[in-house]
Amino acid sequence: MRTIPADIAERFEVGPLVEKRADLSTLDVDSKDVPELLARLRDRHGYRHLSFATATDLFEEGVFVLTYMLHNHEERHSLGVKCRIGRENATMESCHLLWEQMWTYQREMKELFGIDFPGSPRVDESFVLEGWIDIPPMRREFDTREYSERTFPTRPGRSTKDPATHMKEKLYPEAL
Amino acid sequence: MFEGVKGFFPPPYDPKEPVDFSSGKFLKMWQGPQHPGITGNMSLELAIAGDIVYDCKTHVGYLHRGFEKLMERRLWMQNFPLVCRIAVPEPDFNEYCYAQAIEELAGVEVPEKAKWLRNLTLEMIRLASYLMWIGGQAGAFGHGTIIQWSATMRDYVLDLFEELSGGRIYHMYIIPGGVRSDLPEGWTAHALEVMETIEKNLDDIELVMFHNAVFKMRAKGLGVIPKDWIDRYGITGPNARAAGFRRDLRKDQPYLVYDKLDFDYVTAEGSDAYDRALVRLGEMYQAIDLIRQMLARMPSGGEFKTALPNPLHWKIPAGETYVKSECTRGEYGFYVVSDGSDKPRRVVVRGPSYTHAVSVMETLVKGQNIADVAGLMVSLHTYPPEIER
Questions:
Q1: pTM of the entire structure?
Q2: I need a surface site. Which of A9, A120, B174, B355 has the fewest CB within 10 A?
Q3: Domain A6-152 in this protein, CATH class
């Protein structure tokens, strides 16, 4: 059974360590503590590998849950650090100085969820959706079908016919 | 004596020199999305002076189909035809990770036979994917013949998949609770025959490619990834093993039946394009060996799937998990969140190309010759669809 390291429990207000599997746990933390906690986990507790960073939209509760998945190669253990931020004017402190690939995840979260990371390199550049002007598409309120119908109106198309009827019309028009 | 026109030729590469297009020294050049040296649909926006690359920006999105968004609007089982399409050359890792995540959240136990069959398909697709890669890697350095051989060998593996699942590219063989079918009659003998053919062909490829002076001269020393980059950039798979790191999820956190198989890490020390190719070649031989081991040790009888609830009304208990596996490029994972309904709340696909093709590529390519960009890119082995999901 894993426990929260003493220095982490002393310095930060963290939730319980939830063990999902023997090699996977999650830890809830206040959003303001995330950069310092990640740095401490990386430098003092061996969680040197960042697997990914992402957001989950809890539309009903008005929050985004940000997840930073870290991995400790020596202990062969993954730890998901989770924090909640408000959906309105969502902003989170940038952690791009901790891992070289972090800015890409932050750039993606800005584009797909509208979460801002002030100071993160190229955070305002489009990543996947060049020229996108609608609301960030990974937000729950974004309706893909409505967007598609609004943006790409249905063309009338050509009338299709049953081949037998078509040939009858073509060959024996007088019979119809 | 003529001393040349001063300033006509670009000065030697200076990494600190800022790229200023108004100076007339630099040229913006796009490599891709339509370019033989680009792996899949992506492009590199290069700033070059003479033949030297000064800056690079990776552009993705040409193949964006919104997989993660689509999955939030479909039933758990309806996502199966979707997930395999995230990585065309290796659909089975997506199938495995997604199925395993659902099983974990729903508490479904998979029969032993199904684990062996799943493991077998993962190694088969590893071999097929590497065969595709080695043709691209050789082609990037001017070897047109290798791809003719390796594409044929890959087709033989796809034949096996077709016999097993009915599909050549997308198999949809791994499903929650197990796999769709047992091995057909006579399949094992055919598979062993194919493995022998591929092994002989790999010997030829090794001789022609890895002992070729041109390939050696161009690949050795190209795109050296320093050891301290591995954790800083989140590099995994053969790119990390070629730098001497003994890291492989199949050994470190064994899943399926990897703990019952005999194999070791394939590593190298040079960390350049040549050593990365050597590691992948070693893992191709290793995949053949693992397939043989599995065919010999797999239980002959037993159930290959568990009965599941009606997939149209299947609600997965609320929770979250992160399931990962070792694909040909490194750590491939699915982070799945369920809110207890009949559709996933969030599915995140973690592909190794996300790191390798963007932050690593953009940094590594600086100072390289424009002619080596394609070779370097293929040596990092990236697939854009897993970046833009």
A1: 0.90
A2: A9
A3: alpha beta
